[in-house]
Amino acid sequence: MAASKPEYLINDSKYSFLKELGLQETNLGVFDGTWKGSGKVVQSICPSNGKVIAEVKQGDVSDYESCVQSSTSAWNVWADLPAPKRGEIVRQIGDALRSKLIPLGKLVSIEMGKILPEGIGEVQEYVDICDYAVGLSRTLAGAIYPSERPGHVLLEKWNPLGLIGVISAFNFPIAVYGWNSAVAMVCGDTILWKGAETTPLVSVATTKIVANVLQNNGLPGAVAALCCGGADIGKAMAADKRIKLLSFTGSTHVGQQVGVDVQKRFGKHLLELGGNNAIIVADDADLNMVVQATLFACVGTAGQRCTSTRRLIFHENVYNEVLGRLTQAYKQVVNRIGDALDDSTLIGPLHSKQSLEKYKETVAEIQKQGGKIEFGGKVLERPGYFVEPTIVTGLKHNNPLVHNECFAPIVYVLKAESVPEAISCNNEVPQGLSSSIFTQNIGNIFEWIGPKGSDCGIVNVNIPTSGAEIGGAFGGEKATGGGRESGSDAWKQYMRRSTITINHSKDLPLAQGIKFE
Ligand code: UN1
Questions:
Q1: Mind giving me the DSSP string for 110-136?
Q2: pLDDT of 481 over the 80 cut
């Protein structure tokens, strides 16, 4: 007997915006210039209510192969366009995204579970990086160095890599693809994207927008190919020599294996893995700012940013006061837990049943180890995957639980006697993504940003650990993987460097004055 079909949310009038994005009840999840899908069908679940939004037919290995082939041949056309011309295409993609900002933001919100302003904010990040990449397309500068030989010129020129792979995570289902693809496109690369298995609708809707722009300009759609799928597709990408750079966002555990697999074939990798981000509060900090910033960084996105704050390190002189005020603030926001699309919601659900289980396990383990739940700790009895934001005290700074990232709104509060002690506590975890100090003291600030300060990739002062701007390089050190995306000189990772020496004289002098006659 055939299983009866669920009621798809896409058919409910409240979700009619999904049709504006070209989505249907059943969608094809592979794009290599044409839409296809021969793999298994996955249902996309809305974490706010546990219902099925719509379904997507994923790619299998043969779909993957056709994506690689089409995108590789699309590269022959794409790489020949002058960079500013590629920038013009990316400008049009930014405009197309602008015109779909609200429906796409809503889709992010219902499929990932983040609240609507954050869903829209995420699409905005993609729009912003498009603008950034347009400028970059006219400034991908090389260099001229003085040659030590007469009649010689020493140049540095950057060339595209070819086809690159992007594997993104559920928590930023569009922005991370945007950071990689907008920059890679102006650099002259083509892209094959595999999004998270649980956010296939965002991948499909985004690729439709990008493909439309490419095809309206008479360019091959496979410049931006998509292969929705599971670990089999991810593994194939890691092992595939034709993928010159693999940009991977996900857990430290999986990312480490990806790094090894890519390195085995001497490919390039860009890893954005786990974080364990701390906010240090010095005894001279502005405590009003601290409470506001901490609340956003700990409970915003229901603790599911890789930049979410996991540890609070309070100076002993302000420990009781900040903890008391923060607990009060938590009490006020728990009435604002709800459907990610509702205007009044501040805290949406966890993304999946699996995330909920992990939260429950972690809370139980905290209690077993003698940690005290100062606030929260419970799963809400209602449809969807809702939990209370949770504050934990009483565990030592070096407890293995405190050194482990649980992707949920659980924060450990720690005490320090001084700023140097707090900094060493910040640095003792395996991960090194984001970090923040609240202080008014200039000495503390320079200590924090100096050689013996924070060892993270993102080092903030008087702002939360999350919410980085696109203009800087985003990423972290140690078990976070070392990759940098988005702004600054992150573009160099999407290109290969050619060091060029041209002899325009009639002589053949060797470097270092060597005579070989
Ligand atoms: C992530 O969680 O994977 O800094 C990225 C931030 C966002 C990006 C987070 N701009 O919080």
A1: HHH---HHHHHHHHHHHHHHHHHHHHH
A2: yes
